[in-house]
Amino acid sequence: MSYKVKINIFEGPFDLLVYLIENARMSIYDIKVSEITAQYIKYIEEMEKMDVLPASEFMVLAATLIDIKSKMLLPKQIDEEEGSIGEDPRTELVQKLIEYKKFKNASEILARKEEDTSRILDKPQEDLSFFTNEPDEYLKLNINQFVKAFNDFLIRKKKVDEIRRNYERDERQRITTEVRMDFIRDLILKWPEKLFTFKELVPDTGSKYDTALSFVSMLEMIKQRRIEARQKTLFGEIKINATAYLDDGKEEEPDDKQKIN
Fold first, then answer.
1. Domains by residue range for the chain, with CATH
2. What are the tens digits of pLDDT across the range 216-253?
């Protein structure tokens, strides 16, 4: 891990110049050259007092600022033909400062990213050649063998689909039977002393499915001792009445009192 130590010495002349401009709250596009030049030279003098030899690049920039300051003091020349004022002597310096700030900001972003990534632990790459070096397998079949294999696949798929449909149908039947048993219970609870006929337990749709479903539901409720049913003659009317377990729903073994004659 690396450590960074900062001291009160700027990294370069432009670093010092940017600091002075920002500290004076000046616009980089409208630098007060006279003020900045005085502050810049004063800082260099303080460096010399501390026995710190300023680098030549600091001196070059100081000379550049003095040159710009002198040009700013001269009267502005106007082009008589075009009627325009000559180029601002600060233009070149401003462009260099803009480029410097751009690269400095980019370097700060990269430094932060480097610091962030230094906290990340990478997992070393594993050798997967044991799994990837296996050769591909090819089936050597003639056209008749391929057709037979495909037909076997279709037959197995048809059986799986048939089993799935049967399971779904049985599941729907189980749920529907429970619903019909609740229907019969609620109907009998309205008139607990009444002797119902089987036809009254079938909804008004009159479909064969509803009739069969009501009959199966009735048998299940008889098994649970929730109702009793009697039929005096073959194919005669079935009479149903409630027991004490109608609203209980507990499955118990039938006894002699439960009859279907």
1. 13-73+86-113 (no CATH), 169-261 (1.10.10.580)
2. 989 998 998 899 999 888 888 899 888 888 887 544 44
